[in-house]
Amino acid sequence: MAYPKLTDQPGALETAAAIARGEMTPLEATDAAIARIEHLDALVDAVVVCDFERARDAAKALGTSPDDRPLFGVPMTIKESFDIEGLPTCWGHEAHANNIAKSDAMVVRKLKQAGVVFLGKTNVPPDLADWQSNNPVYGRTHNPHDHERSPGGSSGGSAAAVAAGMVPCEFGTDIGGSVRVPAHFCGVWGHKSSWGLISKEGHDHPLMAGRGAHDGALSIAGPLARNAADLAALLRITASLPLEEQPVELRDCRVLMLVDHPSCPTDDAVRGPMEAMAAELEKAGVKVDRSSDLLPDLEKQHGDYMRMLNIAMARGAPAKDGKRASATDWFNMLDIQARNEMAWSHLLEAYDFVLAPPAPVLAVPHSDKRIFDGMIDINGAEVPGAAGLCWAGLATFPNLPATVLPIGETAGLPCGVQVMGPRWSDLACIAAAEQIGEVLHS
Questions:
Q1: Contact 97, 139 (CB under 8 A)
Q2: What is the longest distance spanned by two Cα atoms in the chain?
Q3: pLDDT averaged over the chain?
Q4: What is the 3-state secondary structure (H, E, C) of the chain?
């Protein structure tokens, strides 16, 4: 099946503008999106919780007289792990398949207030802990570009739904690249927000039984879309803190590009598009450095990130060595993270942005076990899958924002780049990514 290119379907703001001009009603936009899902999702299996009747009712309730809400009448889906009142939130577990949310997550509430019509929810791996989106409740989501490969995870259903042209935008979460890697694997735009910028209220494991939980270390909520303008709009709508508008002129920026990481090799299928992008940027007058003495020790950072990630994901439960993390362990970890954040802050006084791969490989073949528990092929050699998390941790451990945009492809598989900047420079990262896209694709 041929799926629409990113430019073939209108984005979220374009859809809202068409509704505002009277070219379609919210109900017509909703019905068109439902029809796309019913047609396009048969071979992808991205939208696993359908809420079409309530969506049509919500669209009818909006009426035919557009107001000034930024996403008035725009249909979208959202990652299964976000609560929507009346729909199941199971995080891929059969034991929680009948866990029905009693209220909307904060992100859902804010998007509804902005005029969004929710059509349903998209697939995830169990516990949101894989670069695949496959679970015993909803089955396996396939990459729209190659059905034998993963769309990524844990927001894989989100990226696949956008990439296949079912919806103009989505919302996911990211602690181990879970927004950035699916965007990279599927060839769409995604944004890892600065930690703490967007509330994750109503995004809690079903074991919390609706009691609510603290906003976990490292983990963020962030949008996926078909273009930069939609990412910025979704960010403005959902941010819990005021966002400073930050104009960017890419040719005046100091840019550092990283393609190699001491913790994991980079596949040539990723290196090629990265180097081609750098050449185009330099041709356009952008100065791109390839190394800096200010860069933190990346191997140490990756080790520290993996320790913090494992403690956070397991809530301190015993590791493979049988030891449980103590409160002292956790406070020491926070100190290490703070020092790393300060080191990146120092680097980002010398550079406006850092460009890096979102992952060392393109979309991986389907596997019956977690990618992190097996091996991945990098230039013909077998490498532990968990090593690939080094590029996710690059921005996650120091709490930095990072925008992913598609930059090219290798053998029909998309390749992206993540554009990192100082903490709270989220809109600037998106603006820089947009200008990189203009250099590459104009």
A1: no
A2: 63
A3: 96
A4: CCCCCCCCCCCHHHHHHHHHCCCCCHHHHHHHHHHHHHHHHHHCCCEEEECHHHHHHHHHHHCCCCCCCCCCCCEEEEECCCCCCCCECCCCCHHHCCCECCCCCHHHHHHHHCCCEEEEEECCCHHHCCCCCEECCCEECCECCECCECCCCCCHHHHHHHHCCCCCEEEEEECCCCCHHHHHHHCCEEEECCCCCECCCCCCCHHHCCCCCCCCCCCEEEEEECCHHHHHHHHHHHECCCCCCCCCCHHHCEEEECCCECCECCCHHHHHHHHHHHHHHHHCCCEEECCCCCCCCHHHHHHHHHHHHHHHHHCCCCCCCCCCCCHHHHHHHHHHHHHHHHHHHHHHHHCCEEEECCCCCCCCECCCCCHHHCEEEECCEEEEHHHHHHHHHHHHCCCCCEEEEEEEEECCEEEEEEEECCCCCHHHHHHHHHHHHHHHHC
Q: What tokens appear for 268 in the block?
A: 């040539």
pLDDT band at residue 4 using 50, 70 and 90 as cut-offs:
confident
Would you place residue 244 in the very low, low, confident or very high pLDDT band (cuts 50, 70, 90)? confident
pLDDT digits 0-9 by tens, 41-90: 999 999 999 999 999 999 999 999 999 999 999 999 999 999 999 999 99
Residue 7 in this model has a pLDDT that exceeds 90 = no
Do the Cβ atoms of 424 and 195 come closer than 8 Å? no
Nearest residue to 192 (alpha-carbon basis) of 434, 405, 428, 396: 396
For 208-215, which contacts have Cβ atoms below 8 Å and span 24 or more sequence positions?
210/101, 210/102
pTM over the 0.85 mark: yes
Crossing angle of helices 12-20 and 26-40, in 10° steps, is 140
**Rounded CA separation 52/117 (Å):** 10
Contact predicate 49/88, CB 8 Å: yes
Rounded to 5 degrees, φ, ψ at 409 are -150, 160
Q: Which two tokens stand for residue 120?
A: 């349903």
State the catalytic residues.
Answer: 79, 154, 178
Given the structure tokens 């073939």, which residue do they identify? 8
Q: What is the pLDDT of residues 290-337, one digit of tens each?
A: 999 999 999 999 999 999 999 999 888 877 778 899 999 999 999 999
